[in-house]
Amino acid sequence: MAGKSFPRAAPDVNEFELIARLTKTLPANENVVVGAGDDCAVLDLGVPEKLILFKTDAVVEGIHFTQETPPEKIGRKALARCLSDIAAMAGTPTAALVTIALPKNFDAEFVAKIYDGLNSLAEKFGVAIVGGETTTNPERILISIALLGTVPRGKQILRDGAKIGDAIFVTGELGGSLVEKHLEFEPRIAEARWLAEHFHIHAMLDLSDGLGGDVRQILNASKVGAEILKSAVPVSRAAKLAARENSSAKPAFASALTDGEDFELLFTIASKDAVKLLDAWQKKFPKLKLSCIGKIVAGDGILIRDKRGSHQFNAPGYVHFAK
């Protein structure tokens, strides 16, 4: 039936509803430590002192980049997204497979430059590109990366460990990433490993779908709620500038909560360790901001606290297939 198209109705579920449906009956085996539902799968393949991290992600033309995006930045972003997920588990990346799907009228030089950007980032983080697949995809480019990594046994950081009273931290600045950052962000591999080596981090993930959406992933997994202090959220200059210069743009704080594509680390730690962490961080990573933005509380959902008091935050971050 190659080449035949079929009519498609609008989807009746969003991204997270579809994932929940598809992952209900996934098969597993004795090697699976953590399956679907976290930033990476965690596997025990009998490697002494180490567990294996396994991650896949894709970038699609028209969704994650445009035809005008420099090809080197497309390749860089494709790998950087997976590297950011390895960072979220406090792991070390090792090897990747690359699948690239191309329209029939592709430009070979353009594709080679995609690989230049991908290869350059791989070399920076010590990642071997060990193969992959090429195929045809009508109309647009799609790149899928499957990435392996390792983490010391017992040192993997999951989403489900947040505890009531924890301080909530985020690295960097949030919002306005589509101006430039989403193509040039730096995966926080070194920072996450340092955190795992020097502190007991209870829960962590990387911010890909916006603070407001991604913090819920920790809350749902840990069965807790969060209170976020509005004035403490580190809103990016790009988000502030966009809000000032364009009356139809989101308010800067809303951008920080919902834009997505920030790829910073969001994590929780016992409040008694918060000051010690901030002091040590400033010495180790003086050029990267670290902000305590709130605390884990009993219950569920997100409360935003500002000068008017606390109010419920219900808006999602970026969600594929949103209705």
Question: How would you explain this protein's 3D organization?
Answer:
The chain is of the alpha+beta class. The chain is built from nine helices and 13 strands. The protein has a seven-stranded mixed beta sheet with strand order 8-10-7-11-9-12-13, sandwiched between helices. The protein has a six-stranded mixed beta sheet with strand order 1-2-3-6-4-5. Strand 2 and strand 3 form a beta hairpin. It starts with 14 loop residues before the first helix and ends in a 10-residue tail after the last strand.
Short characterization:
The chain is α+β, with helices and mostly antiparallel strands.
Topology:
Elements: H1 15-22, E1 32-34, E2 41-43, E3 50-60, H2 71-88, E4 92-102, H3 108-124, E5 128-136, E6 142-152, E7 167-171, H4 181-184, H5 189-198, E8 201-206, H6 211-222, E9 225-229, H7 237-245, H8 252-258, E10 265-269, H9 274-284, E11 290-297, E12 302-306, E13 309-313
Parallel strand pairs: 4-5, 9-12
Antiparallel strand pairs: 1-2, 2-3, 3-6, 4-6, 7-10, 7-11, 8-10, 9-11, 12-13
Helix pairs in contact: 2-3, 2-5, 7-8
